Amino acid sequence: MYAPVTKLLTFEEFLAWDDGSGREFELIDGVPVPLSEPNANHEDLTERLCAYLESHCQDNDLPYVSRQSKQIRLKTEPGEKEKSRKADIVIFDKDEWQRMKSSSSSAAAYVPPPGAIEVVSNNWKDDYLTKLAEYEELGVLEYIIVDYAAFGGIRFIGSPKQPTIMIYQLEDGEYLPGKVFRGQDRIDSRLFPNTSLTAEQIFEMSR
């Protein structure tokens, strides 16, 4: 159980809110909604990929900072209740991260981040459908879906199902059809153009 809120929260209020349960939450229409805990494979892949990307950005002097399990403020119209997603990995603009370092506010994506990465779990429709639409509307430049255990529907990862990475890149406000990577395919990313990572090397991070 978690403590109910007595009023709808803004994004900033939500970041400061704590029900004392230790659980992770997202903000849905002003209401904190608890998230399922990731399994150990999901946790390892997320942690190792985030560490790799952070090191890659530093080594190649890329203008990004990679951080694990950070809230992203979603787009809402004036008067609408606020929403957020807690992405597995958020790729921040380095200048925006430096701005937050000089602030006492919680570290989160208050403005649209350049990139977001989701590692797929049983609720795969959230990653392939709901979050895809949300990140597109928000203007996230690159959205990466890592389906290391082939959870997704066959219309996304084919039949027979196999571990797949899909990368969606924003063009004129819309995501282009997702690029598909499997096995020894080298990852083709706009944010990380010099990476030599293959899809299988990313999947190995869960093992």
UniProtKB/TrEMBL annotation:
UniProt keyword annotations, A-Z: Endonuclease, Hydrolase, Nuclease
Q: Which GO terms describe its molecular function?
A: endonuclease activity
- What single Pfam family name could you report for this chain, choosing any that match? Uma2
Keyword Hydrolase tagged: yes
Gene3D superfamilies, per database record: tt1808, chain A (3.90.1570.10)
Question: What SUPFAM superfamilies does the entry give?
Answer: Restriction endonuclease-like
Annotated Putative restriction endonuclease domain residues:
11-199
Which InterPro entries does the record associate with it? Nuclease_put_TT1808, Restrct_endonuc-II-like, Uma2
Entry superkingdom: Bacteria
| Name listed for the protein in its UniProt record | Uma2 family endonuclease
Species source reads: Phormidesmis priestleyi ULC007
